Amino acid sequence: MIGPEPDLPKGDLNMKVRDARRWWALGAISLAVLAITLDVTVLNIALPTLAGVFKASEAQLQWFVTAYTLALVAGMLPAGLLGDRFGQKTVMVAALLLFAIGSFGCAYAPDVAVFIAARIAVALAGAAAIVVALSVLTLLFGEQERPRAVGIWGAANFLGLPLGPIVGGWILSHAWWGWIFLMNLPVAIVALIAVVVLVPASKAAKTPAFDLLGLVLASAGLVALMYGVIEAGSDGWGSAAALVPAVAGAATLVVFWLWENRVARLPGGQPLVDLSLFRSRSFTWGVILTAFGTLGLFGVLFGLPQYLQAIEGVGPEASGLRLLPVILGMIVGAVPADRVAASIGARLTVAGGFLIVVIGAALGSAMTVASGDAYVALWTFVVGIGAGLGFATAASAALVELPQESSGVASALLQALVKLGPALGSSVLGSVLSSTYQAQVHVAGLAPAAAQAVRASVFGGIAVARQMGSESLLVSIRTAFVAGMDHSVLVTAGIAGVAIALALTFLPGRKPLPAGIDEQAR
Questions:
Q1: Beta carbons of 232 and 242 less than 8 angstroms apart
Q2: From its phi and psi, is residue 445 left (phi > 0), alpha (psi between -120 and 50) or beta?
Q3: What share of the chain is helix, strand, coil (3-state, %, to 5)?
Q4: Do 94 and 178 fall into the same domain?
Q5: Is there a single domain that holds both residue 369 and residue 495?
Q6: Does one domain contain both 394 and 500?
Q7: Residue 137: CATH number of its domain
Q8: Taking the chain, what is the end-to-end CA distance rounded to the nearest angstrom?
Q9: Does a structural domain hold residue 454?
C-alpha cells in the first residue's frame, strides 16, 4: 500500500495510508530527527576535546556552535520550499545522505575550516530533515491523530538533549573522539532505508512559486535575529554585537512581511508564505505557544546541567542521566495529548499543560544547596509533563490548517520561529541567573583577578575557592548560584503564566466532530 506510487495530494494520501504502517513511517522519521538532535548536544560536550585536536581558539570553538545554529535556521525555509516543489520524501532522502556525508567529514576534518564546513553541511541536512519530517506528519495523519504523532516527533526532538552528553561522554572516555560523529552513520542509514520503504512519495498538487527575494529576506532576517540573540547570551542585551544584528534581523523580517503582502496583492501573485495562514488563530497562536514552550523549557535546561555539575558535583555523563526525568515527563505528557485535546479542546489542553509547568517551576524555584537528586527529578518531571502536553497540542493546532500546496514552507516557518526559543531562553534566563549570581556572591577582600574569576562563572569561582582553601567563599558561590537558578526558574513560571493567558484568550476551543470520526481516527 505504501510502495512506489504516483505523487498523491494530501486527501488521497491520507486515504491510502490509513493503516499501521503510517506509525512505522513515523518511527523512521523520528529516528532521523533523534540522530540530528543527538548531534547538537554531542558537540557541546566535545568542545574541550576538539580544542586540543584542532588547536582551536575560544573564538573558533564558539563558531563551531554558532555556525551550526545559524546554518540550521538559514536552511529551513529553502528546505520547506524544496519539499513542496520536489516532494517531501525526495528531500528527506537527500537530507539523510548529506547528514551522513557531513558527519563523516566532521570525524576526518584536517583543520578548523574543514570542520566548520562539515558542521554547516550537517546543519543544512538537519534543517531539511526536521522541516520535512513535520510536513510529512501533516500528510500522514488526520486532525484527530496529529497530536499523538506530533508528541512522538517532539519526544524524538528532546530525547537527544540528555542522550548527547551521556553517549558523547562515554565515547570520549572510551574511544576515539571521531566516533561521536561517525555514530551518526548507522542511524542515518537505518533511517534512510526506512524512509525509502515506508514513507509514501508525495508533493503539492500545485507547484509553489519560487519567490527568491522573499526567501532571501526571510532567511537573512531569521539568521541575523538568531545571531543577535546568541550574542546577547554572552555579551548582554546592551552590547552592540547583540543589538545591531537583532534589530537588523527584525527590520528585515518586517520588510519580508511587506514584500509578501505586495506579492499576494498582485494578479496571480504567489508569495513564499501564504499570509492567510496568519488569519487563522489556530495556526498563529499554535506557533507562538509552541515557541513559548521551547523558550521556557530550554531556559531551564540551560541552567540545570550547571547546577548538577557545580552544586552536586557530578560529571557530564551523570548530569545527562539526571535530565532523563524531564524527558520521561515530556513523553508522559505528549502521548495522551490527542485524547485530552479531543475531550476538552486545544485551548484548555494547552492552558492545562502550561499550568503544570507553572507548578513544576514553582517547585524548582524552592531549590537549595542541599536539594538532592530526588527533588530535582520531581520538579523536572512535572515540568516535562506540562511541556509535553502543551507542546504537542500547540504544535498540532498550528499544523491542523496547513494547506497541501505549502505545507513544507509553513512547517519551515513554524520550525524557524520555534528554533528561536532555545537561544532566547538560554539568553534571557541565563542573564537572570548570571545577574543574580553576580549580585549575591561575596568577593570582598579578594584580589582583583580572583574576584573577576569568581564573578565570571560558578565553575571559575569554585576553582578559586578551592585554590584558596576558603570554605566560606565556596558556600557563598554555591548559595549565590542556586539563588540565580531559583530566580531563572521563577521567570520560567512567569513565561508559562503568560502562555496560559494567551492560550485561553486566543486558541480556539473544541471543534465538534461528525459522528463516527473519532472512532475512525483511532
A1: yes
A2: left
A3: 80, 0, 20
A4: yes
A5: yes
A6: yes
A7: 1.20.1250.20
A8: 19
A9: no
Task: Return the amino acid letter for 196.
Answer: V
pTM score, whole prediction? 0.78
Q: Is 264 helix (H, G, I), strand (E, B) or coil?
A: helix
User: In angstroms, what is the C-alpha Rg of the chain?
Assistant: 23
- The Cα-based distances of 397 to 459, 503, 508 in angstroms read 42, 11, 9
Q: Is the dihedral of CA 186, 294, 88, 339 positive or negative?
A: positive
Grid coordinates of 426: 538560554
Question: Do 9 and 57 reside in the same domain of the chain?
Answer: yes
Q: Which residue segment(s) compose the domain that 252 sits in? A: 210-271
In the chain, the amino acid numbered 514 is: P
Q: Are residues 265 and 287 in the same domain?
A: no
- Backbone phi, psi, residue 511, to 5°: -90, 130
Cell of 339: 485524547
| String of DSSP letters for 311-326 | TS---HHHHHHTTHHH
Is 165 part of any domain? yes
DSSP string, 19-76: STHHHHHHHHHHHHHHHHHHHHHHHHHHHHHHHHHHT--HHHHHHHHHHHHHHHHHTH
Comparing CA positions, the residue from 114, 102, 111, 116 lying closest to residue 63 is 116
Asked if 372 and 235 sit in the same domain, the reply is no
Pairwise CA distance, residues 161 & 42, whole Å: 9
Locate cell 584542532: which residue?
Answer: 54
Residue 434 lies in a domain: no
Nearest alpha carbon to residue 73 among 185, 219, 176, 180:
219
Tens of each residue's pLDDT in the chain, 522 residues: 333 333 444 444 444 445 667 888 888 788 778 878 777 777 777 877 888 888 887 668 778 877 888 888 888 888 887 887 788 888 889 999 999 999 999 999 999 999 999 999 999 998 888 888 877 777 777 767 776 777 777 667 766 666 777 788 788 878 899 998 998 888 888 888 888 887 777 655 566 666 778 888 988 988 898 888 878 766 777 788 888 998 999 999 899 889 888 887 877 667 777 777 777 888 888 888 988 887 777 767 778 888 888 888 887 677 778 888 988 898 888 888 888 988 998 999 999 999 999 999 999 999 988 888 899 999 999 999 998 899 888 888 877 766 555 566 667 777 777 777 776 777 778 788 888 998 899 988 889 898 888 888 888 889 899 999 999 999 999 999 999 999 999 999 999 999 999 999 999 876 544 333 343 333
Domains contained in the chain, number: 3
Same domain, 134 and 227: no
| Domain annotation covers residue 436 | no
Pair 293, 391: CB distance under 8 Å: yes
Give CA angle at 342 (278, 283), nearest 5°.
Answer: 5
CA distance 300 to 491: 10
